[in-house]
Structures are given as C-alpha cells and as structure tokens.
Amino acid sequence: MKIAIATADGAVSPHFGHCPEFTLALVENGQIKQMETVPSPGHQPGALPEFLAKLGVSIIIAGGMGPRAQELFQAKDIETIIGAEGPVMEVVEAYLAGNLQVGEDACDHGHECD
Predict the structure, then answer these.
(1) What is the pTM of this model?
(2) How far apart are CA 82 and CA 107, in angstroms?
(3) How far does the chain reach from its first CA to its final CA, in angstroms?
(4) pLDDT tens-digit profile of 41-57?
(5) Alpha-carbon distance 27 to 24, whole Å?
(6) What percent of the residues of the chain are helix, what percent strand, and what percent coil, each to the nearest 5?
(7) Domains of the chain
C-alpha cells in the first residue's frame, strides 16, 4: 500500500489542499519500505485526488480536508484519515501500529477548506 501524508515543514499539514508537498510511504507487510516527498501540483479543486490516485496512493492522511475532497477520494477508493497532527514519520509509524490518534478536522472551523 502507499500512504500519502499532506506535509508542511516535516509535519502533517493542517490544510490538505494548501500543503506544499506530500510525503509518500510505500508499505509492505506492515513495514515502511520507501519514503519520498513530492511537491504538490498546487491547489486546484478536484485535482489533488486525481494526482494522488495516479501515484498509486490508497490512503491519505491530513490535518484537515473539506467534504468535497473527501468525496472525491472516496470515489477513487482512497481512504481518508483526517485530524492527524505531528511529525510525518511518527504519524506513519502510529498508523501502522494501529494507534494513530486523530482529533477534529482542522478544516471544520467555519470556512471553506479543500
């Protein structure tokens, strides 16, 4: 499986659609086999789910994501995990260990967020 983490300054970005990059973690048999960072192609509504799907992503982790983006990921059979925070490596390791703690959607605060 391939996990994409919306990333800003080495940590989970609070706003998926505005993150400067994505950290991609290739996971096999519960172990991280490869990690790479790819720049975000920019914020264009609806484009990021297509971009990440073409990269083979099956899970996206972010601090916050608007409902439209969540629906577009669901349509591509990509699981969304929202409300994560912290350093990217710690978040991936916690997810793989089954103990990732998530809080509220960082985009659920009264303004539009993609």
Answers:
(1) 0.89
(2) 9
(3) 24
(4) 987 777 889 999 999 99
(5) 10
(6) 25, 30, 45
(7) 2-34+41-97 (3.30.420.130)
